[in-house]
Write a structure and sequence with these properties.
heterodimer, A: mainly alpha, 20 helices, B: 912 residues, alpha+beta, ten-stranded mixed beta sheet, five-stranded mixed beta sheet, 27 helices, cytoplasm (chain B), acetylation (chain B), ExoRNase_PH_dom2 (chain B), ExoRNase_PH_dom1 (chain B)
Chain lengths: 435, 912
Amino acid sequence: MAAPLTLVLIVAVTIRAVLFNSSLAELITERVEVVSPLNAWKRVVEGLALLDLGVSPYSGDVFHETPLIIYLFHFVIDYADIVFMIADGITAVALYLAIQDYNKGVFRKQKYALEADRYPHDCLELIRTPKEMYYIPLKVALFYLLNPFTILSCVAKSTCGLNNAVIALFILSTIKGSALLSAIFLALATYQSVYPLTLCVPALLFLLQRLYIPVNVRWASFWLFTVQYAVMFLGSLAVIVCLSFFLLSSWDFIPSVYGFILSVPDLTPNIGLFWYFFAEMFEHFRPFFICVFQINVFFYTIPLSIKLKEHPVFLIFMQIAIISIFKSYPTVGDIALYMAFLPVWNHLYRFLRNIFLVSCVLLACSALFPVLWHLWIYAGSANSNFYYAITLLFNVGQILLVSDYFYAYLRREHHLTHGLYLKRKDGSEATLVLK
Amino acid sequence: MAGLELLSDQGYRLDGRKPSELRKVQARMGVFAQADGSAYIEQGNTKALAVVYGPHEVRGSRSKTLHDRAVINCQYSMATFSTAERKRRPHGDRKSSEMSLHLKQTFEAAVLTQLYPRSQIDIYVKILQSDGGNYSACVNAATLAVIDAGIPMRDYVCACSAGFVEDTPLADLSHVEESGGGTSLALALLPRGGQIALLQMDARLHQDHLDTLIEAAMTACKGLSDVLDSVVRQHLQEWVRGVTVPAGNQEQEHWLHLLHLLQSWVFSASPCISVEKAPALHLLRKASEMGLLSDPNRRRALTNLLTRLNTPLCVVCYLAGVAWFMGLAFEPFTLRTYMSENAMGSTMVEEKFGSGERALATAREFAAHKKKAEGMPVDWLVKAMQSRGLEVFTQSFSRTLPFPDENKERYMVRGTNVYGILRAPRGPRTESLVLSAPCSPDNNNNQAVGLLLGLAQYFRGQIYWAKDIIFLVNEHDLIGMQAWLEGYHHTNTTGMSWTPLHGRAGSIQAALCLELSTDVVTSLDLVLEGLNGQLPNLDLANLFYAFCQKIGVLCTIQGKLQRNDWDSSSGYNHAVQTMLLMVLKQASGRPWGDHGLFLRYHIEAVSIRGINSFRQYKTDATTIGKLLEGMFRKLNNLLERLHQSYFFYLLPSLSRFVSIGYYMPAFGLLTLILLLRVSSKKSVHALDLWVQLGTLSTGMEDGLAEGEQASSTGVLSVLTPLVISHLTGMALYMLPVLSQETAVEHFPVSETEAVVLTAIAIYTAGLALPHNTHRVLSGEGTEQGWRVLKLVAVLYMAVLLGCTALINFSLGFILALTLVPVAAFVTPHVPRVLSACVMVALSPGFTLLYCVFIYQELQEAPVSLLEGWNIYLSVISQGILDHSLYGSLVYPLLSLFVYPCWLLLWNILFWK
């Protein structure tokens, strides 16, 4: 299996290298879909220049990346292309290993359930076979590396690629069961962009499940482990933040990075939902709606964790998807990360209802983004409403996609306990309704 | 025979049968819903129940798996209450396991196990009541159950027992006869070929009698096979009658086909279920279980409706789209133009320009100097402008065309632009307006330059200018304009070399380009169509129209006068012609006047062209000057960029317009066809997967393996045509210009001809090149393969046309008109030759040819075929030139996207 993975890596690196050297790279770097004010490479370069001049990179409203990133590129600025390619490679390999491990676990669990005869008789066709699971990790790597969104993001040198790598490493260490590494990477991811904070719940659930500790507030071991994990997470977060402080010897970065993420002052159009809404809104409603919008991102954690507490990896997928849809400065690179997980849920295909429609919508929107941008900005014949309409449609498409997968997952679980061919009480065919 | 006489003297047996007579046989199939197949049989008083599961993956230890065929697992058991005295051990005794083994052997001989490698078929049989002939009842029941499960067999397996009493063979022994102590024999037969699947005998028998006995058993088996056959037919007839065929033509077709297969078998005399029919049966059974046929879901109802009415809906949509489009020119359906911009609407200006005659004198002077200089009289112009009080600057430029332009006879272009800036006496000088006139090589446009200089002198004397006014005389029309605009905005998009501009005014708000190609001007024509089909804000056209009305100048659009008789057919025709001309010009994507290049920089601009075609009228230079003065004074009042009015419109006449909201439905109706086809494709697609599921049924876990299968074959069969079509497109885009030198060396043609002919050659070669390339990778093209490809192609086309129509409605609409029908009808099953002709006739290249002829027809300058062909060739070369000179996108769009998309459809037609 290493050979195909290597091949995919080589193909991916070749494509990126070719694009880096083509004239397209400059065009891609400017696309608002690919870079946000938060992760634009142009701004990183600007911040570096300020740093070299001995000015705080956070003075002014140009640079909003974290101090660690700027110090990383302080040393490797000449090899930035390679860094971003390596980041993509790390993400893909980490996801590959993580999913391989996860699938092994799933298969083992299924085997136990089968041996204990826990599945209803007619559900045998829902059972997953090693044959169809064999290529899933490779497909995940393939989906991530060759996804046009990832490629665009990498060629634009959007720092989103680095965030994805950190999150992928977090997933890998979680699935491998290393609580410490998991907490450290989660802290890093949180440090980078705040939102991955919500991933601590699924990580905790997964680690608990792995240690056979029931999620029960009356169990001392549950509390013990939770506190342990929280301490590790907060400790490493504190270390990282303090490190940043000592690097720049000022707290400037806190308002400039986290304040920027949370209060959304930059309303450059992007593929998210914030810019248009806040551009149109009266100023005095702004704080209220900022709160509403930001709480919206975090809020889904609670119901989803309750519903999916037995399935933490699916929960991770859902969380990443929700973050990338509702975050304040989303780019296509964020979308690429959760899309890489879609092959893992291959077996839900039969339960998906709108997948065809949704994929058509997403495809059409991706094509329409540049067209409407052209009409708005260059031709001047359309206006921001056109572009926002497409943004909205794109996000609705994504939400439908995610909820479709959610429904399909729940439905499969339901069938695994209640049998595939459901009958009503009177014996007629029953259909499941999502309520 | 002790005590009991098994055969009476009259030759009757204990239960009154003749020696060769069978007991009464009754059977039912499909008695259980959960199992894959089940059957119940009564032979006399022996009652047996058989249940079949599978084929499914091998359970338990994997070592049992056979790699070339299925494992058959049989379990025989007797109910505890099956015999006269209650049995202690219902299964697990020696007799039962022996019987299981026998059953297994029998069915391994009969079932086509090689169709299901690495899988397992479970057959469970239970004797509910035992009255002799247990084995045969079991085999018969199991046969029916296996058929019910849709597992293909070589033939029915019929089993019967036979005994031998007093030299007479007895068929189908009952319990009493069996236990009477005589010889008994059990035989399982595949009746069609007369092969024996199992033969078992319990007691001793003289060899001479064996043949008779076997003969008797075989006859009995054949009798039984008739009975079983009729049972199966009966069952299927009932079932077939019960099936409600789902609505929707595509789906219906499939179901009807399957049903027909079944019926042809059920109602025919063909003796046995054959291999190809078994899967159909299996499929139908599965489908009815899954509720695929009777699902009351609304969603499905909608899909059904869409699939059933698909073709009529498509036709209706197409006709409605075309009718809607033609209706746009009908005056009551259009809106009257009105001025939206307040700054230009309500203010009054008085035109005072009166020095038309002097302008004409200047024009003559200019002409003389032009002749002397054999080109742009730069020095004279600079002096003339300076003397009129302008800041004067020049810009020289040079450009080598990729290949010679035969229409305008230029290859290496070198020229100079001269422009003068009138600084605004009032206002901050951050905005400016442009008036330009071209300096053309022949005698045209001299008057325009004269008028421009006249206006400059007059404007200089006025104090109300709030915006700088730039007077530009550009050489080599569009190339010069391109150089000047690039210089002004510090961009270089096309690789032209020019000297930088030394003087600039503010950002340009609007531009008017004046062209007076004749000395006698009868009317003024407004040209709107710019690069890539971009149009200026409608307010600019409104402004022009308003002033023409005010001053009383004859104004036209597309060279057509306004008419008031919209209710007569000729009036309507006139409007349609005007609108079609606009659509064709816009679709061409080329700048139809010098103004066309301004639009790219977000500057609203129009060309005003003096024409001489309405003899009875005459417009003098003073009037034109007044018109321009008025327009400039209004534009001078602008407070912000022109944005109030429409950017997307069509004009059937100058006073009427069709806005985007009115014309988009026409296009929408056409693309709706594609979406309809997609929706039908989708359901058929889904159904296809079902069919595939049945035909392959390699013992897989349905849903899962299905998806994988589909995706792997789908991707392979789609990817290669996709890549090859696009490579052909790339070749069409790159090669003509690159290979012109080689072509000129080897063929007796000029460079321009070489480019055009290479393009046509590649276009034609593309038709022959990419057929069935998918076969190299994925082997035989499947039915499903082309469906996936078509799905992709149709979606691709929908997105492509949608994007095109947003940027350039006319181009999108014209492409949709010809491509959509192709996309809708093409399948590999339509008559090849005819459809290939139709497809070629509707291909993008031919669309262009039709456009050329229609354009000539509308211009009222019809051409012969040969002339038309020559124009067609020059249009292609112009398209390529426009792309490299000005960055027009039509040629790359056609060659890189539309043509490959059409090639995909072409691929489908020749799918094998």
